Amino acid sequence: MKTVRTTCCYCGVGCGILVSKDRQGKIMVEGDPDHPVNKGMLCSKGMNLHHTLTDDSDRLLFPEMRYGRNLPRQRVSWDAALERTAAVFTAIIKRHGPDAVAFYASGQCLTEEYYVVNKLIKGFIGSNNIDTNSRLCMSSAVVGYKMSLGEDSVPACYDDIEHTDCLFVAGANPAWCHPILWRRVEAAKAANPKLRIILSDPRVTQSAALADCHLQIQPGTDITLHHAMARCLIENGDIDLRFIRYHTEGFEKLQDTVMVRTVEEAAQLCGIEAEQIREAARLIGNAGAFLSMWTMGLNQSVVGVNKNLSLINLHLITGQIGKPGAGPLSLTGQPNAMGGREVGGLSNLLPAHRDLNNPQHRREVQEYWQSGPIAPQPGLTATEMFSALREGRLKAIWLLCTNPLVSLPDVRMAEEALKQAKFVVVQDISNRPETLAYADVILPAAGWTEKTGTMTNAERRITLLEQLREPPGEALPDAEIICRFAQKMGFHGFDYKDPGEIFREHIQLTKGTNIDFSGIDYALLRRHRSLQWPFPEIKDPAAEPASTGSSGRRLFSDHQFPTASGKAIIHDVPDDNDSEKTTPEFPLILTTGRIRDQWHTMSKTGKVNKLKQHIREPFLEIHPEDARRRSIRENDLVEVISPRGKVRVKAKLTTTIKKGVVFLPMHWGKQKDNDLLRANNLTANVVDPMSKEPDFKFTAVAVHRYIPP
Ligand code: SF4
After folding, report:
1. Which end of the chain has fewer CB atoms within 10 angstroms, the N or the C?
2. What residues pair up with 31 in beta bridges, in sequence order?
3. Is CATH 3.40.228.10 the right assignment for the domain spanning 139-331?
4. 39 CA → ligand 1 middle, Å
5. What pLDDT, in 10s, does the model give residues 519-530?
């Protein structure tokens, strides 16, 4: 029996897992009892991970390529595939410049993989055209933290759940989307009867069942709600004047802004009672320690950054940051969205949270990489890449471990974009027919447990994922594929011996920065299961961390923030919402999201029969009154129509959703010839102007009963 330690490849909670393989090749998965995140627990997705490892029937096994769009692809050697890709990239760059190529990666990549692809394009190809699907889930939080705290550093951690008196869960359903974290919340509530939970969500979700105060707000009114809560806190005298005075700036402007609307007016806009807002503010005001958690309800919006800022304001005016049980804790959707942030794997970032627009930062990285000059202008973001492909500005795209034809907004536009592309490289583990149809080159990648590297979860905790088995066929680890390609392009600095060498290079770049974790290496991770950053170099080996895996340093406990003034910035954001407007033709608001037992575009969880038993097919949640007006009954087939496309699914009548709002799960893609299950047929390619994160939570739609012709 061989057993390795790893972390779950699904959500950003980052549960520790033990994976074992016996002599007969049977694979078993169990929660790692010594991992501080989950302490042995796993949710339904994690518990069934072994099923995804026993069925290789959909795996990509060999490199393939074709010489023309209408010609069939053929199996080729790695050398042939990478040499042709390098030749095509070189020709495109020579003719159209480096910004004519792009890499679109994934929050499921390991940090080492993110690191090398970021180094390749920014340092050596000379373009910043790298983005990841994490842009779709957490980029609003990144900008929010930088604008308010001066640094994209999540200030709280999971242990704070056990030390808080008041938890505000905003725009999230962790009971289904971050289940193990929610079990910790349930346990904390059971252990501490004084713990109060506030939840804001237009739907009565499974998480709402635990809430003392559920604010079932109208979609898009989060800022109005947060401002009204701030007003109540100010009026009740529940603010920390000393903290505001010495450690923040901008309070006066916020005070003026939040006083413009009465709590009653705000409540009316939010579609809830004024007393509910007052009660929520009282719970925060009375709390010794106040913690907030949020995900897509705030982030996936055209005003996602402002939603983040207005929530962080509640911490800054109450001084609830930098102490146990307190602080804003944004959750990541993907397992390694945080690792991508660390290496600067977005089109506007550089390693270790350096800024692309800072000449000193560019110089530091360039010198370290011994690369060509790093371009100062940001590259294309996720949705911009596909718009640029469609318009012919971008010629070649490399899709790395992602499924854009299910996950991007206005997915038909993305499909059109791939049709227009001159050259498409797909590097993936499995056969995703939607994307592969456009691939000129297919590069088979190693999957979870088939390679070694690290991931960082939502609380800045790095865990080492150890290799258990060999990849099938000729599949290779993603980092190795990128490094081999870089060498075919003639670039130096990509001849790493192993992933550990990439990690060592990466951590040296963090030295002296705010996120410094130059003291972490694979050996230390093996000894301690996982470690949180910051974690500077350990001078004295006796000072190694305790087995909790924490370096013991709480961010912002000294109330010093890395801004120009050293103070946190309170932003008086406007409380308008520029989402698509409903009209008489499209009168309902569509919000999309996850279900409990599926993960993203179902490329792994969709293979597990047990997980399909929970919910077998997509559905539309609609309020009975909205359904009655349209003569829709339970399980009727309905068509959901937006200006961009349609979806046809069964109706689920429920009073758990607000009138005027409908909900569709986001997981399903094309099934055989049926492309009417994809929620993103409907969503619009509109993004927050600062974070470029799309608005998946507010689409104007019409719904009617489907009558077959
Ligand atoms: Fe995996 Fe997330 Fe479930 Fe933990 S909570 S087992 S990380 S899916």
Report:
1. C
2. 17
3. yes
4. 12
5. 999 999 999 889
